[in-house]
Amino acid sequence: MTLVADESARLLETAARAARAAAGVVARAPRPAKDAALRGAAAALRARSAGILAANEADVAGAPGLSAAYRDRLTLTSARIEAMAKGLEEVADLPDPVGHVLAEWTRPNGLRIRRIAQPLGVIGMIFESRPNVTADAAALCLKSGNAVILRGGSESTRSAAAIQACLAEGLRAAGLPEAAVQVAPTADRAFVGAMLRASGLIDLIIPRGGKGLVTRVLEEARVPVLAHAEGLCHTYIHAEADPAMAREILKNAKMRRTGICGATETLLVDAAIAPALLPLLVADLRALGCDFRADARARVICPDLPAASEEDFSTEWLDAILSVAVVDGVEAALDHIRRHGSEHTEAIVTEDAEAARRFLDGLDSAVGMWNASTQFCDGGEFGFGAEIGIATGRLHARGPVGLEQLCTYRYHVIGTGQTRP
Amino acid sequence: MTLVADESARLLETAARAARAAAGVVARAPRPAKDAALRGAAAALRARSAGILAANEADVAGAPGLSAAYRDRLTLTSARIEAMAKGLEEVADLPDPVGHVLAEWTRPNGLRIRRIAQPLGVIGMIFESRPNVTADAAALCLKSGNAVILRGGSESTRSAAAIQACLAEGLRAAGLPEAAVQVAPTADRAFVGAMLRASGLIDLIIPRGGKGLVTRVLEEARVPVLAHAEGLCHTYIHAEADPAMAREILKNAKMRRTGICGATETLLVDAAIAPALLPLLVADLRALGCDFRADARARVICPDLPAASEEDFSTEWLDAILSVAVVDGVEAALDHIRRHGSEHTEAIVTEDAEAARRFLDGLDSAVGMWNASTQFCDGGEFGFGAEIGIATGRLHARGPVGLEQLCTYRYHVIGTGQTRP
């Protein structure tokens, strides 16, 4: 059944108005109530595990044409449900970001001014196949005092509804409004369009998924968006790199997990060190199953590498493929990154502090690293406890988006009768 | 001449690409260069004062149908040019927000993480009649390391060009790219549309002007916007207010300047104190020339007040008119504000700290005040030195937008060869 756009807009408006009312309650809920809701939801996930698995089986059975990888992402197991429950409990353990005094000062006229962290309001989360995102995203939104409307993949609606029922049980038991966590009331794609146009009803859209989904959201949204369309991350091995460190970092940055946004897609290596080091780097990665796309200068050193097209350097492989270019120093590396990068995460490996400074200063990326693997671009690794995504835009938040980034702020100004001259 | 939209888009793209290149330079410019550019521009404004006045006279002569108020806002005088020059020097004196370490921590694995303030990039400023905004906005954008494209009112193009020439002189003398401060190359309204659609070319749009302009920008923009469409500010006089303080605060909040966004538009007064206090408040304001729109309960106490319609309570008067309602306590006041307010600035006057806490906690507004005039909602009064506007949205910045709010951040992660397990 395809709903007309107006029907989707009506459903969205109903959901968003309920979310707005709930947001006013959870924004002011004390920490123990929010944590109790999360722990209650975790208990419900464990107690209702059989029902969730049955719902998920029906989802998987109802989507026969899926690729094996997609099918794997869609499938829940007892272990995955337990991981979801643990995830909720871990978020309950995190500090409450709401009400935190971010800054405080007193004016010469005696006015005391406080900048205080406050929830954003109503968040719209749009994601693809993994049903566990329902629980993870709901937990982070609730803990940060926000209401959330979750729109997962249309093939996972039964799983999402079963997970949402557990969250509702937790909220109810904690005396919080169930409407703080809602799943889309329809699998119709027009509902996504309605979310993207819901200016004034939804305060922030967070898309999580492939480049196609995120690009559509960024292009169509009339609501602010926190996202990254891609993570075309670079590791630059400077002439003064420690060769052993460079080899370990590159192996990890490229091959630890190839499908995450912080994985290195392109190796830039200084001409001065490339003849000695590049063959070793290639051998290391080849032993791990990596393939290459190399520019002409790299192929002079390693003639057996496949040639890269210009477009290859603008491709986020998300796979065991590495683009390779030989460059002449920091400025050339920065030029390459500005031409091809996505302002996500780039790393330099060098023992030369001045070169590292020039590289980091010259980047516009959300995250610049010195002598570390680009795969550290992650909310957990940053110490945020958990993340709802990574942002590469310029406004509000950049890099990992955790509880703190799911808040805005407001001011309290405390006087003793002051009037403005 | 009306340009086709494509021609405007082409002009905008050319300006924005030049701005992007300049932004890369001013983002990394040391403080002395930026300050020298601002002081040089101030000197140029003084030196070229006669030429600026002549350009402005031509603008005023070329727009004969204007209201007196609009004509006054459009007109420059020697004193106004001197004020612009002083404004540039004051911004030069402000601390540089760029590169400020906002947070810094070390992870258990030894990674050092720094969150560092960074310019936003290219800002589009859309404003109405006052030509001095050209200088003020340019100064704040440049000092915060951003490039800016300024689109003022179509009737002030000669004035804007004359002022921009002074800024260009300052930039040139300081060795910074002139393209860091550009004015729209055409007065065609289609250029505004092109700015609003310039996703990826412009990072942030700041509109300054009437509700019509700001609403159009908020509705049409595909680029993030910082703005307030209106400032429908409330002063709530609680039952436990100090009557003398309440009278002074209300006089100031309503009548100090009626045309600014922080001016109080609605008085809410508790039923318990209204019979004694409301007649005094009305007499105070009437003596200053204020008119009223009162609800039925207020008119029982002051029968000579004109009756308010429901719509009056949702009207930002920006004039010597005050909407008045009698309410029953903090929750009723908050209800009224949620129904009619614009999440800009609201104040409570009370000696009861618990009532003040409930009021401030219950607000969603950017600024909540206790025993102070709503007219303090201003970047200068907050200690920011200057402001480019006031934001009431939920993302990025709320309240006065100063140098700090014109920055985003990025991370530097400093390791010693760490790889992610």
TrEMBL record, chains A, B:
Alphabetical list of PROSITE patterns matching this protein: PROA
Biochemical pathway = Amino-acid biosynthesis; L-proline biosynthesis; L-glutamate 5-semialdehyde from L-glutamate: step 2/2
Q: Where is this protein localized, as stated in its record?
A: Cytoplasm
A biological-process GO annotation = L-proline biosynthetic process
Q: What class of enzyme is it?
A: oxidoreductase
State the Pfam families in the record.
Aldedh
Which Gene3D superfamilies does the annotation name?
Aldehyde Dehydrogenase, Chain A, domain 1, Aldehyde Dehydrogenase, Chain A, domain 2
Protein family per UniProt: Belongs to the gamma-glutamyl phosphate reductase family.
PANTHER family on file = DELTA-1-PYRROLINE-5-CARBOXYLATE SYNTHASE, GLUTAMATE SEMIALDEHYDE DEHYDROGENASE
Functional description taken from the UniProt entry: Catalyzes the NADPH-dependent reduction of L-glutamate 5-phosphate into L-glutamate 5-semialdehyde and phosphate. The product spontaneously undergoes cyclization to form 1-pyrroline-5-carboxylate.
What is the name of the protein in this document? Answer: Gamma-glutamyl phosphate reductase
Q: Which organism is it from?
A: Roseicella aquatilis
